[in-house]
What we know:
By secondary structure, this protein is α+β, with helices and mostly antiparallel strands. The protein is built from five helices and 22 strands.
Amino acid sequence: MLPTTLLLLISLVLSSNAQTRTALSLNTVTRSSQTSFSIPGQDKLTITLALCSSASPRFFISNSTNNAIERDPGPDGGEDVREIDLKDGFGSWTGAFPSGGVLAVEGLPPGASFEVGISNDSPLHEIISTDPLFGDSTSNQAILFSHNFTNPLLIASPQYPNYTLPAANSSLPDPPSSPPNLTLIVTQTSSTSLLRTACFLNSSAVSTTGAIVNSSLWLRGPQDGWRTEYLLGGLTPSTNYTAFIIQDSHKVSGPINFLTKSASFACTLIHALPFCPSTTYALPLPAPPNTEFPIYDASTIPTEISTQLIGVLSNFTTSLTTFACGRDWYSPLVGCDDCQREYRKWLCTTIFPRCTEPSPSNPTFLTPNPSSIGLTNAGPTPTSTPSNQQVFSALLPIPTSQSPSDRLNLPYMSSPYTQLLPCIETCTSVDRACPPFLGFRCPSVMFNGASSYGFGYIDGAEGDERGGVAGVAQDRWGNIWCNTG
């Protein structure tokens, strides 16, 4: 038998630990300023941490079977002690706690707090792998989209003999009945990096800006998945902004960055066109009359514009279906439905020209003679571009005397503007998806193609996928090199 004094000492240690450690509940997020926690026993647990301030504490865990009588785990080591590394204020660890465990915090400043979640299922905190999406901006407005919170839609191809393609003026399918709870956070970009945790982004340390005029579910295309679209107002001209999306209170998507246009920018945003679902950018049109928030949608766009576009797509669909779609096959990979989908996107992108303006870092840059620039319209070729050399966007100045589009009867603008040319990939996607008898062909850079399209940004000079100077049409930092719609 142990001596009485030793038994009393062990009892005292057990009692002390039990009183100072906060018990964490399973599948629950706890916000705390404490420094010692007891973890319930489970065969497998995921522990997630989220800092709510700019402090830099360290977190240590132990799943030792003797954790009830041991001192808290810390930087000096100990039995089964591990440190949970944090990045951007977020950290996670997954392992077994057959007899429970201890979480301890070192270096937590007075008044600072953090969140801890323990789960035997999916993580309670998460950095979402897909980013929000920037649509476009004017001097004081912007269109932003959340990350896509559903997988691409699985739409069955029509079957012969009832091979029916979507109508030219098609409508969106029914949205999800139970979308996640999403919150948009927009703040002016600063030199100080922000933590990617929901409790920090919702704190007083982050000064939000702008006003959400409207938000709604939107499907930019069946291959994209559902997103929430946000219309923002009250922004400042020529200002850099950073945006995050918080999902279900504890999960974060982002950041992405975007820049508002200058105060003299004269074009108007357009969105919510069922027949052109990915057209969400500035169009060379004056602001619609008698609207509280000056932005075009399907109800305010001039009828003569929408009628003509829908007519072109209807005629194309009629020509396409003269082929025995679904019975005869011109490709083992694609069919008439793929052809119509890609043609719709190309048509919307080319008929609705996208307004923009040169980057503030190159305010005098314009494409002087696009037909002679080469692969990238504006900037060096992929083979001669050092990794640190700037890539210019496919910009084309449009004088006041020229119609915004020779394909559609858009009215003349009262001032010149700059067009962001479509990516050549919007054209080549149609060429690959459609049957040869339609005679659809894309221009070559050798024969003046760069006067109408941006070449060499996404795919390389030899057509290698993602082999261009940028590899994408736009990135999370607000760079947009050509227009994919």
